[in-house]
Amino acid sequence: MNKKYVYAALAFMIIGSLILSGCAKGTKHKLNSPHKLTITTTLYPLEYFTERIGGKHVSVSNVVPPGTDAHSFEPSTKDMIKISDSDAFIYNGTGIEGFADKVNETVKKEGVKTVKAAEGLTLEKTEHHDEVHDEHGDKDPHIWLDPVYSIQMAKNIEKALIDLNPKAKSDFQKNYRSLRKDLKRLDESFHLTVNESPNKEIIVSHAAYGYWEHRYGLKQIPVSGLSTSQEPSQKQLRALIKHAKAKHIRYVLLENSASDKVARVVEKETGAKTLKLRNLETLSPKDAEADEDYLSLMQKNVQVIKQALQ
Q1: Cβ distance 85 to 63 under 8 Å?
Q2: What does the buried/exposed string (b/e) look like for 230-249 if buried means 16 or more CB atoms within 10 Å of the residue's CB?
Q3: 257: closest CA among 302, 305, 290, 224?
Q4: In the sheet that 251-255 helps form, which strands lie side by side, from edge to edge?
Q5: What single DSSP character describes residue 215?
Q6: At a CB cut-off of 8 Å and minimum separation 6, what does 235 contact?
Q7: Cys-Cys crosslink for 93: which of 100, 114, 118, 286, Cβ 3.0 to 4.6 Å?
């Protein structure tokens, strides 16, 4: 077994013992009490959906820091104590948060409600394999990039909040309907943009956009696999450059959180220009300072796609 995972497992055992033995001080709120619910999430979209639905009834914080790769993040003791003091822990549940299953089992014992946002969703298979898939199969975990799937994730969150605070049910339902309306408009924007574009292929820095392929008919050509740490072989890189030249692809789409050194090689060799995509695992500090949110950044992604497909 990889030493990294042995150390992580030991850390979770120690942290769990500390929590259960009472070293994590503080009184746990009882379910259905009128207090403001404290919710901990793992990925930025989950934080955004929970804030939109919960409104004034919730206080939400994300455990993965801005700009951090959720694939490799490991929570500290402080993070674990914070989660154990929450009313609910909301995680994606598609394998992208390697730490989530261990956290889930630990905090359940503390009476924390755990919510798998992806519950009930069928994940798409992917052709792009890497070490993430070696651990979690051949499924694409980036479901929050699909507005239609995001509606179902939001519905799961709404249900969980109602379970925690039934007295605020009408507010949660009203807020969910408002979010659902926004997500439907976003879905329409994607459909319209791709349908009206003459080209359907985009070069992306890593293979996070499979749901756009299946939902809207795009074709992603990834420089790397699903993990941002996965880089192509020289043979793969040459084939990608050859393809970009043959198809006269004019843009390479990079990400805030991904290493772009290989994509820069593609840019240099093909003469393609660089555009920026957000995969939205986390909200970058720069985007946070600019008061960007899930919807505004996804609309920017739509505009980037529109330019790239011309």
Answers
A1: no
A2: bbbeeeebeebbeebeeeeb
A3: 224
A4: 219-224, 201-206, 251-255, 273-277
A5: H
A6: none
A7: 118
The answer on 146 and 73 residing in a single domain is yes
pLDDT band at 291 (very low <50, low <70, confident <90, very high): very high
Number of domains in the chain: 2
Residue of 273 and 44 predicted with greater confidence: 44
For 26-30, 94-98, 195-199, 212-216, which range has the lowest pLDDT when averaged over its residues? 26-30
Task: Judge whether residue 33 has pLDDT over 70.
Answer: no
Q: Which helix (H) or strand (E) holds 108?
A: helix 100-108
Burial of residue 83 (number of CB atoms within 10 Å: 0-12, 13-18, 19+): buried
Q: What is the pLDDT of residues 46-57, one digit of tens each?
A: 999 999 999 999
- Do 12 and 116 share a domain, yes or no? yes
Same domain, 180 and 199: no
Residue with tokens 């924007």: 189
Its domain, for residue 168, covers: 3-188
In 3D, which of 108, 46, 104, 48 has the Cα closest to residue 75?
104
CATH number for the domain including 293? 3.40.50.1980
> Do 158 and 119 form a contact (C-beta atoms < 8 A)?
no
Mean pLDDT, rounded, for 282-309:
93
239/281 Cα distance (integer angstroms) = 29
Does 133 share its domain with 21? yes
